[in-house]
């Protein structure tokens, strides 16, 4: 619990509120007792300590991967190559498809990689196990733009809290293992594994569904909800663990979001909202976070205000400049609307505090 308090306190959050939440969380029993080593914060894997885009070539049976659309897809043998210090590094990897919507709807499915520790010990993939590889949906420039737009949202959340997935952009050449021919080269990104996030922050990954507001660290729950409101994302559920992971520490939970392609900030053509919600477009914002104590939100709004310039800077750095200028302008204008809301006390109350889930 001490490491959790320290990490969240560095965000300018209320330690009094955290302590109060800790007392509320005492009622939840833990299924595992973590060791002191597990509860000590660690560095991220080497690959996620740098943001420079990687250039990789992945060889696999692409035809079979494209047809592996079932619920239990097999692992396929493959290889990944890259150049380091003038030398070609070639490592074996197993690959399989994953996902739900993208698996069924995209031209190329999202993937999960499986590295053998002994084969990657001296490579950039050291300490990776089975990370997600977020791939293009459509083999087009627009497909690249959507990958880049989603990557930016992970980078924004990294600015807000260490309880977030690190990501690494990849310029990936897809080669068929049968003939060695490169079918296409597109942007993709590798995503830090959930267990690795928990290990890095000194917590434990929890898999229990049904978490309520009383199970969350209040400030962490508010940061999560306000971020989803910032990016216009409603495709998630904390209680259902849908596009959400939970990190536990001393019986409390910190929610971590992932998968943002249905958000308004990405604004993919294929993205739709749940018809049960009172909005008709992913560009419409709807606050779906839990009802934390009202005194939690001012500090959280201050956190978002303090990161505004840094968020904007992400769209003008080397990675941000890969996005089309019109998309950057549109995205930043979309974020401006969010800041107009939280900077107006009446609007913030009407759009966020009054619409939170769990109001009596």
Descriptive overview:
- The longest helix has 20 residues, at 141-160.
- This protein folds into 2 domains: 2-37 and 203-355; 47-194, no CATH class.
- The protein is globular and about 60 Å long.
- A hairpin with a 5-residue loop joins β6 and β7.
- The chain has helices at 2-9, 15-25, 62-67, 101-105, 117-120, 141-160, 194-201, 218-231, 297-306, 308-314, 325-342, 345-351, and strands at residues 54-60, 76-84, 87-97, 111-114, 132-134, 167-176, 182-191, 204-206, 244-249, 252-257.
- It is α+β, with helices and mostly antiparallel strands and 360 residues long.
- The model is unreliable at 1-31 (pLDDT under 50).
- The chain contains 12 helices and 10 strands.
In short:
By secondary structure, the protein is α+β, with helices and mostly antiparallel strands. It is 33% helix and 19% strand.
Characteristic terms for this protein:
single chain; 360 residues; alpha+beta; 2 domains; 7-stranded mixed β-barrel; 3-stranded antiparallel sheet; 10 strands; 33% helix; 19% strand; disordered N terminus
